[in-house]
Task: inverse folding
């Protein structure tokens, strides 16, 4: 069973699929602009994401892999994305994958 969380709540190594972009509140001009920018960066529903790195101070910003590219966002920006988190990989598979992906 998978969980649905805000991307801002994710931890390093978490992987998942974007299920919603923005809060769909069309009364807030700032929220609409952020949603538009996230879509332009490739944060679209169905895109695969993986959190690669967290900043030292307050775990901000975060670096993530979105499909085949790497992007950094502030956590307050990542809060506009809802992600279905995949279950953690088994130990051997996770070790192989970790060796393949540079930190």
Result:
């Amino acid at each position: 069973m998978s969980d649905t969380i805000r991307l801002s709540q994710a931890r390093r190594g978490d992987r998942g699929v974007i299920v919603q972009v923005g809060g769909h509140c069309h009364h807030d001009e700032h929220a609409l602009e952020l949603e538009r920018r996230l879509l332009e960066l490739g944060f679209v529903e169905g895109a695969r994401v993986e959190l690669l790195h967290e900043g030292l101070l307050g775990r901000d910003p975060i670096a993530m892999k979105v499909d085949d590219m790497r992007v950094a966002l502030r956590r307050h920006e990542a809060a506009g994305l809802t992600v279905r988190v995949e279950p953690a990989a088994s130990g051997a598979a996770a070790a192989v994958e970790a060796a393949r992906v540079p930190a």
Summary: The first strand starts at residue 3 and ends at 6. The beta strands are 3-6, 15-21, 48-54, 62-66, 69-73, 81-85. DSSP finds three helices and six strands in the chain. Residues 3-100 form a domain with the SH3 type barrels. fold (CATH 2.30.30.90).
